Request: fold
Amino acid sequence: MSKDNRRILVFDPQIAGVSGDMIIGALLDLGANTTSVIEAMRTPVKYLPGCKNLEIGVRDTISRGIRAKALDIKIEEEVIHRTAVELIEAASTCLQDLQLSDKAKQFALDSINALVSAEAQAHGQSVQEVNLHETASADTLSDVIGTAAALDDLGLFTDATVYSTPVAVGGGSFQFSHGSVSSPAPATIEILRSKGFLTIGGPVEAELATPTGAALLTTLVHHSVRFYPPMKPIGIGYGAGSKEFIEMPNVLRVVLGETCDFGLSSDYVYSIETNIDDATGEVIGCAMDKMLQEGAKDVIVIPTLTKKGRPGHIVKVITDFSSIERMCRILIEETGTLGVRIQACERRILARESLPVEVIVDDVKQIVNVKVARSTRGQIIQVKPEYDDVKKLADQTGKPLRELEDVVKQKAIEALM
Reply:
């Protein structure tokens, strides 16, 4: 792999959902060391009160024609529930005993915290008050530690950008400690909600995404996306779940790849647009200002000709996933449009930073902020002074704006060399 290329890891739970044992199985199939991962997974026996024995096996299996690795976990426990605090304390103690990287240990703790916070939210209690049932079992802690150990062994905490396709959550209802509930479980949907994660129902009436699996996935993933990012696949792992379905293979796929690096980064944004033919320029301008103030990445207005020859405008808003609903509401309320169109877009971008540059012109000293754009290789592509800062300097000195932009740009380039 080129030293310039970061790796990409894609989790694909859009058919069979996700659970802790499926994640570990897929990572072992991808090449993580089975012996060291299983050894780490057995740590709760020493530090989790009430856990008498924990046996873990790994085997190859076939699920509806797809080869995958499956975990067999047998637990002997003396307790039926624990508090969230007990689970967090046990996790901390286990991690202190393991030779994992700091990033791996933090990931494990963050995953546990995401899980217990969701349980507390679902029960209407604080983390200190809530009692856990299924999620406090030793296999939960074992799954979290095993995932951290497998990712650490593969070096994925150091150089990988992690993506996930939408999580299939299943459907119907199932039985657990609080009786019959609909799928997904309350803690699972709370985790997915809190992280703004893309979610789809089905394709079967069963629980496909578990709270532990959701906590691990959402803590690890950087981008929840509809489609795979551009990459060169170099490894594929399949982890099997414990159930069998007629409709589909019950496997989680994980794909490891290299970036297609041309010096550009990538991310996902959403384009919201609408046609307007009955609003004044002042109304549209007010809507633009409000959406930019509320966090829109960009707003543009395109003059156009609408039906019956009426002049109109196309308003386009670029925003991130978490702001979609807010931007739609502002656009509709401010302009009076009856509806908007939403489209997910992948874009290529340069890394940007703001550099403060001190400039002295005719005894006037001022700090001018300069936007510096770089490629992923660190190459400087563009240096652009901020307009408002340069205009202020032009007003104070009486110098032409264009001339001062050149002066500031040269100073910035010198500072960057």
